[in-house]
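Example 464, ligand 4AD.
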Amino acid sequence: MMEKIRRTKVKELLGMESGCDVVAKGWVRTKRGNKNVAFIALNDGSTINNIQIVVDKTQFEDSVLAKITTGACIGVEGKLVESVGGGQAVEIQANAIEIYGECDPMRYPLQKKDTSFEFLRTVAHLRARTNTFGAIYRVRNQMAFAIHEYFHSKGFVYMHTPLITASDCEGAGQMFQVTTLDLNNVPKKKDKVDFSKDFFGKQTSLTVSGQLEGELGATALGEIYTFGPTFRAENSNTPRHLAEFWMVEPEMAFYDINDNMDLAEDFIKFLVKYALDNCTEDIRFLNDRYDNELIGRLEGVLKTDFVRLPYTEGVKILMESGEKFEYPVSWGVDLQSEHERYLVEKHFKRPVILTDYPKDIKAFYMKQNEDGKTVRAMDVLFPKIGEIIGGSEREASYEKLDARIDELGMSRKGLEWYLDTRRFGSAPHSGFGLGFERLLLFVTGMTNIRDVIPFPRTPKNAEY
Ligand code: 4AD
Ligand code: MG
């Protein structure tokens, strides 16, 4: 029956003039009505909104009508007419209905009354069919596209850096090993694992950052960015950490830390504006349903200049605040999210870029300041989240970098290729990493990072 008319997506149908014959296909959100007529809310994922299907029950077999339950997949052919009820401009007067997939109401998990995020995480394979997760995943898609649009329009080269690597960029040792060795019978040499027998002939892991390879790109192509999955085996079960997350890492030759901060601020503002302009209905839904300050917060960020403040001054503000923190603050400590949020939400009431951190709490590659104690780091701190971006100007001097590697007792083996960027035509350069899911927390107003990625990987959880 439906072969003749091409399917139109719900998003498009809702903006069309009435009068024509159409075919809609999707999943039943609800069915209600009376003895004579049924109203079906049909959604196909193209928009948060449903199209209403009006069914004259006398024209359909009871056996067909009985199969139209929440979650069932159906196709409908009918006339697009002006809607008599409020709420929508047009609806479809059904002439024919095809059932593609039935959905047993007794067993369908989303039929349950429990709509908590905790419950939906246990059925993450189906949660995209809810209004909330449909909205979040559409926003995620738009943001990914916006990232490419931003850098592409600025002439940055999108560079693919490897996911399997032999180096630990952040030096934190939080890496997932990649191996084909038989774990029940590991080859050994002098009591140590013999990685020469492993697939790559050396010890390898999943990347914690594409930065080091990104620097190779920047010192040849000028301005590059990477955007891909990143892996961290940190055992932190917090609402802001994932074991597998996506990171955007621009890396630019001839940028100092100020250029780097300008880019970071402009980039975030572009993304937030893009979300407001292109995800209007989804963000409006999330605002009205969960957090009616969301849109205000997004618009607020566009209007304000981010504070730029050295770490030392930030710590002074925290120490003089009189606030009781769970983790006490003093110069030299790594700031916790409670400290970051105090600065952003209570003290300055706007995003803060903290710079010039103590070298001992930052990675080896950061440019060393004259004071011998701090490095030219920059972390962008956001309301409700804390750190959303981490970056720095890079140490361009071979001698200084070499000395730092020694000081930290790092092995130079496996890093020679990286040191070549400083040996041959070393260039001043900078870059940063934006946690994609942390950005999405801000843009969607969600409070748990597990809810802004379709299939979250966290300690003891790798379903699907
Ligand atoms: O601050 P990080 O560790 O910086 C780097 O990896 C640098 N190599 C980036 C660079 O300069 N190119 O991580 C960058 C950002 C953090 O600010 C945070 O937003 C996010 O990545 N992030 C995480 N997001 C989710 N789950 C985790 N476990 C994360 N760890 C970091
Ligand atoms: Mg960081």
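Summary: Residues 32 and 39 are 5 Å apart (CA to CA).
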